[in-house]
């Protein structure tokens, strides 16, 4: 489903070159729940952003569903993200002025293949699934961190994406809330055969992943559980 | 950009205004409304002054059309026939002659040089609202002799010392007092003051009116001449129409409309006002544009991270740009509406309490065209000021925005 070849990302910090990613080759199959782990500065988030088409590599190729991402125009990348990918960020990244329901249905509203009735139904269903339907008219500021992250997951899932990317989604949550969020990811993965790529630095999250890709200094140093 | 994208952009902008900082929204609307008021107030005031001056010139000096002696002549001769001709023309409400003679007024120890204007009081009523401006006594009757009406400026105020007077006067003449008038031809006569008027038009308030019958006594002969004839048009008839009619009917002397006269003297003053108005308008538009540019720039900079997130989840940059653009449009419309309300209240206040000077009185003169034009200019300025920073931030790289 996702394939990278010799992926490199080099940042120029003045006269110094920093290799954030240094020749990453990987394959991720449909339905995998992949954890990208590693110490700070190992390139976890950079790799996730590359795979999620939020950033572009210095060299190398990324292919998703047989499409070479490097050949897409800016607009096509936006549409690719809208139709095929979902994102959950560390700090929830909800629009503060929108209610829970509005935040969730926002990406669905933009799809040309969805009618108002369809995206309203999809929003209701996903909110019922995450147990926050009753709070659909609340603003994000009226929810706990764990609830906000569940709303962010619902927003990412409303379009039923091919791949769900999560960048340290539990970083700002306590253990109980983290477990609720991870259980939700697990359920989505199991019940919907949803491909999930998640960055984490918490060791105990390992129990949720099918496969763990460990990075150090921009290189894959371990790839456990590959199908 | 399709309907769905515009709908999302509008939803984002509406919610940002509804649930964002109310203080910021209110302040922005207030700034736009003040800019609108600033844009329209000064031109409106100048227009009010211009309109006031024009109205007073029409009412107390020349009417709608002024018939003057032909070049080289001192008077319009054959007055009765000329008046008869003009009064029977289509569109003419009434024509009335004015005949002015220089004189010296004496009252107690005061002496004052003025023009004594002879009129036909009953005809004058059709042309000038002078008879409605009596502040003491009564207006002249056609057959009155030995009686005058005088302007407030001429009558003066007994409580003001002579050396403190803004304009020389007779020092406090009252109705019923007797004043002596010495005409330029040596004819001297005592007159009873029948009434005192106040028009607010300096030139008129410095004049003394007598009847034509009385002036015939001064001249010692029947008066069949006048310095000029003022003509009042019937409602619905243009000044130009009257002028053309007069010329086609063979009224030989010089015929000028108020517009012709204004284009000479007062017209230049009004042109100066128009230049000042234009400068004021440009300054106001610049201020509005800069203020809105700053407001939206700050807003977009504060929301850079959110903009990055929106782009990341597949929201097109055009949707983001329009969401800020719509905010500015909504703010601009609200500001313009508030500005129109504030300006209307100011206009209402000034119509009740006009700004009065010794030379003129001014109200706020606004036409729907002025309001529409200024609204449109401000709206366009606001749209430009809002869309430029919104466009800039929407073009930014996702990574850069998300790291903000």
| Major sheet strand order of chain B | 3-4-9-6-8-7
Strand content of chain A: 25-35%
Q: What is the subunit arrangement here? A: heterodimer
Distance between the termini of chain B: 27 Å
Strand content of chain B: 15-25%
What does this structure look like?
The complex is a heterodimer of chains A (227) and B (404). Chain A is α/β, with parallel strands linked by helices. Chain A has six helices and ten strands. Chain A has helices at 44-51, 74-84, 100-109, 116-130, 145-157, 175-192, and strands spanning 2-13, 16-28, 33-37, 59-64, 67-68, 85-88, 163-167, 195-199, 211-216, 219-224. Chain A has a six-stranded mixed sheet. A four-stranded antiparallel sheet of chain A has the order 2-1-4-5. In chain A, α3 (100-109) crosses α4 and α4 (116-130) runs antiparallel to α5 (145-157). Chain B has two domains: 3-57 and 266-403, no CATH class; 74-252, no CATH class. Helix content of chain B is 55%, strand content 19%. Chain B has a six-stranded mixed β-barrel. In chain B, strands 2-10 form a two-stranded antiparallel ribbon. In chain B, strands 13-14 form a two-stranded antiparallel ribbon. Chain B is elongated, with a radius of gyration of 31 Å. The model of chain B has no long low-confidence stretch (mean pLDDT 88). Chains A and B meet through α2, β6 and α3 of A and α1, α11 and α14 of B.
Which structural traits does this protein have?
heterodimer, A: about 230 residues, alpha/beta, Rossmann fold, six-stranded mixed β-sheet, four-stranded antiparallel β-sheet, 6 helices, about 30% strand, globular, B: about 400 residues, alpha+beta, six-stranded mixed beta barrel, two-stranded antiparallel ribbon
Any chance you could write out the topology, listing elements then pairs?
The complex is a heterodimer of chains A (227) and B (404).
Chain A: E1 2-13, E2 16-28, E3 33-37, H1 44-51, E4 59-64, E5 67-68, H2 74-84, E6 85-88, H3 100-109, H4 116-130, H5 145-157, E7 163-167, H6 175-192, E8 195-199, E9 211-216, E10 219-224
Parallel strand pairs in A: 3-8, 3-9, 6-7, 7-8
Antiparallel strand pairs in A: 1-2, 1-4, 4-5, 9-10
Helix pairs in contact in A: 3-4, 3-5, 4-5, 5-6
Chain B: H1 3-19, H2 22-62, E1 65-68, E2 76-77, H3 79-87, E3 92-107, E4 110-119, H4 121-127, E5 134-137, E6 147-151, H5 152-155, E7 178-183, E8 188-197, H6 202-205, E9 208-211, H7 212-219, E10 225-226, E11 228-233, H8 239-248, E12 254-257, H9 258-262, H10 265-302, H11 304-312, H12 317-352, E13 355-356, E14 361-362, H13 368-394, H14 398-403
Parallel strand pairs in B: 4-9, 6-8
Antiparallel strand pairs in B: 1-11, 1-12, 2-10, 3-4, 3-7, 3-11, 5-8, 6-9, 7-8, 13-14
């Amino acid at each position: 489903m996702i394939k990278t070849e010799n992926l490199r990302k080099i940042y120029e910090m003045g006269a110094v070159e920093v290799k954030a990613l240094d020749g990453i080759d990987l394959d991720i199959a449909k339905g995998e729940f992949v954890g990208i782990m590693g110490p700070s500065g190992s390139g976890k988030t950079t790799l996730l952003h590359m795979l999620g088409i939020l950033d572009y590599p210095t060299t190398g190729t990324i292919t998703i569903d047989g499409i070479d991402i490097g050949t897409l125009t800016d607009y096509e990348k936006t549409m690719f993200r809208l139709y095929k990918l979902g994102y959950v960020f560390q700090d929830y990244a909800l629009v503060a002025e929108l209610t829970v329901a509005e935040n969730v249905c926002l990406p669905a509203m933009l799809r040309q293949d969805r009618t108002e009735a369809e995206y309203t139904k999809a929003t209701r269903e996903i909110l019922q699934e995450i147990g926050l339907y009753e709070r659909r008219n609340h603003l994000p500021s009226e929810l706990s961190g764990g609830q906000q992250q569940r709303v962010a997951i619902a927003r990412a899932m409303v379009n039923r994406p091919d791949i769900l990317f999560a960048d340290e989604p539990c970083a700002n949550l306590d253990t109980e809330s983290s477990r609720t969020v991870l259980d939700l990811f697990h359920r989505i993965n199991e019940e919907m055969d949803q491909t999930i790529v998640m960055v984490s630095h918490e060791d105990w999250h390992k129990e949720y992943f099918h496969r763990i890709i460990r990075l150090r200094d921009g290189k894959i140093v371990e790839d456990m559980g590959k199908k | 950009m399709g309907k769905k994208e515009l709908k999302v952009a509008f939803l984002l902008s509406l919610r940002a205004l509804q649930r964002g900082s109310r203080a910021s929204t209110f302040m922005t609307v207030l700034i736009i409304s003040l800019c609108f008021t600033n844009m329209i107030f000064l031109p409106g005031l100048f227009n009010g002054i211009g309109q006031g001056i024009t109205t007073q010139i029409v009412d107390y000096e020349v009417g709608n059309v002024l018939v003057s002696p032909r070049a080289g002549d001192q008077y319009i001769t054959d007055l009765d026939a000329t008046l008869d001709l003009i009064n029977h023309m289509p569109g003419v409400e009434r024509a009335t002659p004015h005949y002015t003679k220089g004189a010296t007024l004496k009252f107690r120890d005061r002496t004052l040089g003025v023009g004594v204007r002879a009129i036909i009081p009953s005809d004058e009523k059709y042309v000038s609202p002078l008879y409605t401006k009596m502040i003491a006594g009564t207006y002249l009757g056609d057959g009155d002799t030995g009686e005058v009406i005088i302007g407030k400026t001429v009558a003066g105020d007994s409580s003001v010392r002579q050396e403190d007077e803004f304009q020389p006067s007779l020092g406090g003449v009252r109705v019923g007092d007797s004043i002596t008038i010495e005409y330029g031809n040596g004819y001297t006569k005592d007159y009873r003051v029948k009434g005192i008027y106040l028009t607010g038009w300096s030139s008129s308030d410095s004049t003394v009116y007598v009847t034509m019958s009385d002036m015939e006594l001064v001249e010692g002969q029947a008066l069949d001449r006048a310095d000029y004839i003022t003509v009042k048009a019937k409602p619905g008839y243009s000044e130009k129409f009257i002028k053309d009619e007069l010329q086609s009917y063979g009224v030989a002397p010089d015929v000028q409309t108020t517009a012709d006269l204004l284009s000479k003297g007062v017209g230049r003053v009004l042109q100066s006002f128009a230049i000042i108005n234009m400068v004021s308008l440009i300054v106001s538009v610049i201020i509005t544009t800069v203020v809105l540019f700053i407001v939206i720039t700050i807003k977009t900079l504060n929301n850079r991270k959110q903009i990055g997130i929106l782009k990341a989840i597949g929201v097109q940059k055009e949707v983001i740009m329009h969401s800020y653009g719509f905010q500015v449009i909504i703010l601009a419309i609200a500001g313009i509406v508030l500005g129109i309300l504030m300006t209307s209240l100011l206009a209402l206040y000034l119509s009740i309490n006009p700004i009065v000077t010794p030379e003129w009185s001014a109200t706020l003169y606004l036409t729907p065209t002025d309001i529409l034009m200024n609204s449109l200019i401000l709206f366009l300025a606001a749209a430009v000021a809002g869309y430029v920073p919104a466009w800039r931030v929407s073009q930014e790289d996702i990574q850069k925005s998300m790291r903000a």
